[in-house]
Amino acid sequence: MGVTVAEAREVDRGQPVQLPLAVSMGDPAGIGLDILLSAWTGPHRRVLPRLVLIGDPDALAERAAVLRLSVDCRIVDRADRTPADPDDRLAVLPVRLARRAEAGHPDPANAPAVIEAIERAVAETVAGHAAGLVTAPISKATVYAAGFPYPGHTVVLAALASRHFPSRPWTPVMMLAADELRVVPATVHVPLAAVPGALTRDALAAVCRITARDLAGRFGIARPRLAVAGLNPHAGEGGAIGREEIEIIGPAIEALREEGFDISGPHSADTLFHAAARSRYDAAICMYHDQALIPLKTLAFDTGVNVTLGLPFVRTSPDHGTACDIAGTGRASPASFMAALRLAAQMTSRQPNS
Predict the structure, then answer these.
(1) Checking DSSP bridges between strand 21-24 and strand 51-55, what pairing results, if any?
(2) Distance between CA 320 and CA 108 in Å, rounded?
(3) Which pLDDT does position 44 carry in this prediction?
(4) Using one digit for the tens of pLDDT, what is the confidence trace for 251-274?
(5) What count of Cα atoms within 13 Å lies in the side-chain half-sphere of residue 10?
(6) What's the whole-number mean pLDDT along residues 240-248?
(7) Which residues are CB-contacts of 117 (< 8 A; sequence separation ≥ 6)?
(8) Mean pLDDT, residues 57-64
(9) What are the DSSP E strand ranges found in 178-328?
(10) Which of 39, 110, 177, 220 would disulfide-bridge 334, Cβ 3.0–4.6 Å?
(11) Which residues contact 288 (CB under 8 A, 6 or more apart)?
């Protein structure tokens, strides 16, 4: 869903009105509400995209009081009924918590509402009432304790995509994006010892195809350039330090080149992320979680955005966790959240390739 849906709603001057972004509340004991409130009441309020919070208005009001911030809310029953005027009240589509949220103290009793907020944000987007979704961080331990069967946002979003669009399979791909760098881990939350066994030619090629497709369709890059990292030191040194580059990574790259993709590698990861190297690609495909996230967070710790590629809707998120230890203190930076909002707005302004 994108701006093409919004174009049916015209303002008086004949210009399209961008649909709001649906922001799921995340764990109400964490900093999700803090960063939303900080962004909404801060100096950059006027340049924020139109948005609606999917969450508990009472929890929002209580956190605002704790942070000594003044926010007026407008309760809505549908995302696209949010005010377009940036000086108007913050729109909230209510999802009620089972128990009062206390900053810094996650409660499994509230996990169903946390999940419902994600589900409702997706449903509003699929229905054409929201342009896309921005998810605030969740506490995996808390939702696991409540019986949540998915290892994080990415997998549940794929399940929701399949629920709404069952005619085709959906493969989610995690990208971390910043102005300085975009990285995609081919394996994500996998123990390091299990990474070699998790890498296959087909799986790696699929990640690369999805990344290239969404760089073109969602980011507006006509011919995306992908750089693929090796798994082993020095990309294996011709098999002397491991054979994954020869047996898995290299053949996947060659097959993609034959399909017409602009792709290079396998590159030694220790020389892939300096400034000159970054100028030669649009995204780096990495073999495991930390190989991707360490350079991204080193270059853009406060402004990195988590993007889920490969889905029929846009989803971004701040590139950090719930940070319950600082929830309600006023110390949480909204920078990554605002970057996630901006990127989601940019992505939803483009119609993806089919």
Answers:
(1) parallel
(2) 20
(3) 86
(4) 999 999 999 999 999 999 999 999
(5) 5
(6) 97
(7) 24, 25, 26, 54, 55, 95
(8) 97
(9) 182-185, 225-229, 262-267, 283-286, 305-309, 315-318
(10) 39
(11) 185, 186, 187, 190, 192, 195, 231
Burial class (CB in 10 A: 0-12, 13-18, 19+), 241: middle
C-alpha to C-alpha distance for 273 and 265, rounded to whole angstroms: 13
Dihedrals phi, psi of 93, to nearest 5 degrees? -100, 110
Closest CA to 78 of 28, 135, 19, 32: 19
In percent, the amount of the chain with pLDDT more than 70 equals: 93
Share of the chain above pLDDT 90, in %: 82
Return the beta strands (E) in 204-311 as ranges.
225-229, 262-267, 283-286, 305-309
Look at 330 and 142; give whichever has higher pLDDT.
330
Average pLDDT over residues 92-101: 96
- Phi and psi torsions of 53, nearest 5°: -85, 130
Do 248 and 199 touch, CB atoms closer than 8 A? yes
DSSP state of 270: G
pLDDT bin (cut points 50, 70, 90) of residue 10 is very low
Looking at residue 150, its pLDDT comes to 67
- Of 39, 61, 27, 22, nearest to 327 by C-alpha is 27
345: its two tokens? 């707005």
Each residue of 141-187: pLDDT tens digit? 787 777 777 667 788 899 999 999 999 889 999 999 999 999 999 99
Q: How far, in Å, CA of 101 to CA of 74, rounded?
A: 21
Q: Per-residue DSSP letters for 173-195?
A: EEEEE-SS-EEEESS-S--GGGH
Within 13 Å, how many C-alpha atoms sit on residue 243's CB side?
A: 1
166's CB contacts (< 8 A; 6+ apart) are none
Give me the half-sphere count of Cα atoms (radius 13 Å) on the Cβ side of residue 184: 29
d(CA 210, CA 174): 10
Give 286's strand partners.
185
Considering only CA atoms, which of 168, 208, 166, 170 is closest in space to residue 186? 208
C-alpha–C-alpha distance, residues 65 and 149, integer Å = 34
